[in-house]
Amino acid sequence: xxxxxxxxxxxxxxxxxxxxxxxxxxxxxxxxxxxxxxxxxxxxxxxxxxxxxxxxxxxxxxxxxxxxxxxxxxxxxxxxxxxxxxxxxxxxxxxxxxxxxxxxxxxxxxxxxxxxxxxxxxxxxxxxxxxxx
Length: 133
What we know:
This protein is an alpha+beta fold and 133 residues long. It is built from two helices and nine strands, in the order βαββββαββββ.
């Protein structure tokens, strides 16, 4: 098996983080309360979270990660699944990634000028999770 990079994102509320990502199909694979949280998808994607005890301003959080899939079809299927879970598209700002006071949001998939199909998710903590193939 080759190397795998796993993002570690901040969370000031593990219960809220678990609830949000559970609705998107990720499950809790481990938690050390007040320290660390591991979420995993059936496809094997892992997101790790460190506990931000000082609180976290979702509007000022600049943390993010990129999750790459092998095919456009996988990305589009994941987007459809997450959209069906009720995460709203965009936030009225035009690109769906700015503003919104930390409100979770999802951008529609688009083909980039560098040939990838991508969409983005902003979680309740303000973390950017970009998905692409």
